[in-house]
């Protein structure tokens, strides 16, 4: 309950409480404050949660596409008044036990959030973030590093060609080559012709060089003022102490002034528009069925609470699952392979929008897609949605409100994302978290008449502000863009006088010297090893046996939700079927079962569950690289009142999945293909490393087959078949279901509140009783495996590179695993960040040691270099072997490891993770033994370990690269006998 002191009118440390209320539906108390002197706004969510979060956001609407807001977000974190070091943000990543640290630029706001469970750490980071946001140095040198700069290809040779460099410049080159990102950016430009959303807040690569340092500084002065600031805190904080720090270290230095950055409503179009744009593909790439089309309408204001909720629910009714009419019409049409990314209701901007479309179409068919969408909407406007469908989407809304998430992003950040849009556009932030009253209004609207049909008419069919965007493939676009940049740079080169040439050389030399200089970081706060909890807390559970099946019960505060995890062990599968396990998992939740069609199954899941999905899972043996426990993990979640229905659905899926609808199989296979293809620009570094590691251990081999480019190749071959050609595949799926989904292969976990277990148990028992008994699976034994090293270059349409080198190392319990974990952190922070990101201009330079899989990796992300990066990796190993690091850096590496190890999970995630640990044989004692070994690491051990596994003389290592074909062939001219075997994605 809200502390009685924190009521409207209460004043503390320059803040006045303007509102306070309890939010019982999410077990939080809401306090809203205003800083009297500066006008800054603040929301605090009081919670019984030690993982406390702070964020400060600013309205930052750009008036061009130079990326000023994005580059400022980077540059703000490059040193400040109290902390005048080159990169305090990345330095604090090493000196902290944070559970989350980041910064993010949206279309019209910029946000700086962090979270920590350690109080000392929280206040350390609070000081860093406040000083960075309000008093940054914004040096020209940092602007050139993070944003853009002109340099000679060889900085020491004034006769070399000119190049554009910069972290954001290269990041956005990668982002704007991704059709999914391009679709969203180009749609916004067409849909919002008069407001800030027509601009690319991240920056268009062709426009980024137009931004000046002076413009960057002015943008900060205009928008990063407390009158334009929105503070947010969450957790079991001492709020008074937080307010005191915010006031003393930041806000007391400012006087109130009018807020800036208000975005006006978009002016509505009087007639629909059609727009065509292009995206780059490699020369020779087939252009058929590669286009994307999106039809979008401008809808209501972000603070029209009722219609915003109504449109969100309407999107679920029309597009939310395979039973939804627009979803079904689009995919059953055969016009495309998957829904276009970014569809549904999008409510981030001042004026919201609704979109629907297809990808994988022929460009000339975009008119047919538009006509199909309009016809389907017309039919939906004439036909009432069933009461069952409406109840289903309302149930999903209730579930999403109640569920405490946090496995991917901190739960408080999820809450902040719900309220920041309405808040910065003048709405009441508490209303974004309080649904009971709004749901009451919605139910009254539904009782009065066909509310959803009215929304379709009002915002879609009768709305002239409609844009149809076609994004078509162009196999010469990248070459034309490259030629335009080259011509522009050659023109600039011809205009340089001796003074400007020397200035460019001097600036490059100055930046390089600054990047290489050893900095005194003593002004930055830090934690000590004594701040690290010496042991991992145990996750309590109870084990029972039901019908030969081991069942683990995890008591967690899940807010009235029960989570079920079913592990089916896959020992004894044929090689052919083993490769198909990921496809089988995806299909299982997308097909019919037990006499229900796939649409009926989708409706059942929507009405009674929070989701059901299956995943192919590899649990590495903690004591051996030659063994793993491989399984199919089937997970479901539901409110306690719906547990019986959840288990009934799971039972139907396991007992009688229906693979006979070959057209449905064809549709889902093409959806999988496009989803995997779409994931490459954002996860290219992971794909590159996985492909390289595939020859090093049996588990890594299976990972590549299940979740790497090999899986994509398999899916492409299956998706290319017609429905009539899938009969053999369907028979394989049915045979796998009969073999895998049986009781003797099963172990089970239930996560929920102890008081609800008695309600869950009968449903579980009935499920197990009805499950086929099956055969005891063949035991998985260590494999005879001869490591194979093959350097791979994968060609695809990207203007930047993803470069990896991977090493076979040791398993989790090996004495050297702790040193390898510390080495990964040391190499990333102490060497790769400087050489690959700061000097090389890549968005990221990483090192990682997956102790459970025994693979050590170097990776780069959106990297303009290839062979240089491979040389950096070799030099990094030399740096580590020579011990060119000190005890402070070792301590920072250890802190970084524990920040990862102790990152909190959601209540449901804690049960699921501990169940995986049990199945894996990864005991609490093993985990605590690793903690002790990490804390005992010294410099000599690190040097010896680097030499033992990473040095050229000792390493068992392979390279994996994803890049454009030209970049790969140029690299092979330099690599000699270490050449890349080039394959096409």
TrEMBL record:
Domain Peptidase M16C associated as annotated: residue spans: 471-718
Listed Pfam families: M16C_assoc, Peptidase_M16, Peptidase_M16_C, PreP_C
Coiled coil: 489-521
Keywords on record: Coiled coil, Hydrolase, Metal-binding, Metalloprotease, Protease, Transit peptide, Zinc
Lineage top rank: taxon: Bacteria
GO BP annotation list: proteolysis
One annotated GO molecular function: metalloendopeptidase activity
Needed co-factor(s): Zn(2+)
Record flagged with keyword Hydrolase: yes
Family indicated by similarity: Belongs to the peptidase M16 family.
UniProt-recorded name of the protein: Peptidase M16
